[in-house]
Design goal:
Elements (H helix, E strand, L loop, with lengths): L1 H15 L8 H10 L4 H11 L3 H13 L3 H14 L4 H13 L6 H21 L4 H13 L7 H16 L16 H13 L3 H15 L3 H7 L3 H11 L12 H4 L4
């Protein structure tokens, strides 16, 4: 009887500490922070929110803001493995590893960036026209420490993004971000040229972006800087000692633009 009683208490205790089913963003965040058992939350998220890209994006960013990046990595990895064909899960899974780069040593940075590249590579192998996956991969390469010599690969991805965007028939499949979203690839390529020490090429790309998209703040800001100022600006922006902006908001920010 004593063993039976103890077993019952253990079962009741384990049930009691399971997170309650969540519906709101705050509830999900609080439940994730409070538990070491992510499985019920993963199942809940997968069933209720797997196609809600703004929700998944905000969930990842809030966990990052609360210093729960490692738990966020585990969460989005599990979600991604449940359905690797779901791009909304895959984008966040790729980016959560980028969230985990800041302040890490070279080995940890290389590991996390590589895991992100694995996911993005799978997406692009399935569909080479996946502009968002290619843009994210370009940004991944751009932020790699110089020691790894990945910057030229960023250049290749951004060039493809720009060429794709110039095609009259090209659309970002499953999303409708609007024409001006494509200026981000020009900014990425310009910053890549700066990192490579090619200031004239960086300026050339910025002028092309200005001609195509007009006076957008990210373009104007860079065009006003001289070589040293732009070099310092990009160095600080792409420095892994500072958090990287991994928000997917750009997908819907430029809707109907």
């Amino acid at each position: 009887p004593l063993k039976l009683l103890l077993s019952s208490l253990l079962i009741l205790t384990s049930i009691a500490i399971l997170p309650v089913s969540a519906t709101t963003l705050d509830e999900f965040v609080n439940n994730i922070v409070a538990t070491d058992n992510l499985e019920p939350i993963v199942n809940n998220l997968f069933n209720e929110k797997k196609n809600d890209l703004p929700f998944l994006n905000q969930l990842r960013l809030q966990l990052k803001a609360k210093g729960e990046v490692e738990k966020s990595v585990e969460l989005f990895k599990k979600l991604y493995l449940k359905d690797k064909n779901n791009k909304k899960l895959a984008y966040n899974a790729a980016l959560v590893y980028i969230d985990n780069l800041t302040g890490r040593g070279l080995v940890a940075q290389g590991y996390n960036a590589s895991r992100s590249l694995d996911i993005l590579g799978d997406l692009l192998e399935t569909n080479s026209e996946d502009w968002i996956a290619r843009y994210i991969r370009g940004m991944n390469y751009l932020h790699w420490p110089k020691w790894f010599r990945k910057t030229k690969l960023a250049k290749e991805d951004f060039l493809i993004c720009i060429e794709q965007s110039k095609r009259p028939d090209f659309k970002i499949k499953d999303f409708n971000p609007g024409e001006r979203v494509f200026h981000l690839a020009y900014i990425g390529l310009s910053d890549t040229y700066v990192v490579l020490g090619l200031f004239d090429e960086a300026q050339k790309i910025l002028h092309q972006a200005h001609k195509r998209f007009g006076a957008l703040p990210t373009i104007e800001q860079r065009l006003k800087l001289n070589e040293q100022q732009l070099t310092d600006f990009v160095k600080n922006l792409r420095d892994l000692d500072y958090p990287i902006d991994t928000s997917l908001e750009f997908i819907w920010k430029w809707e109907n633009s």
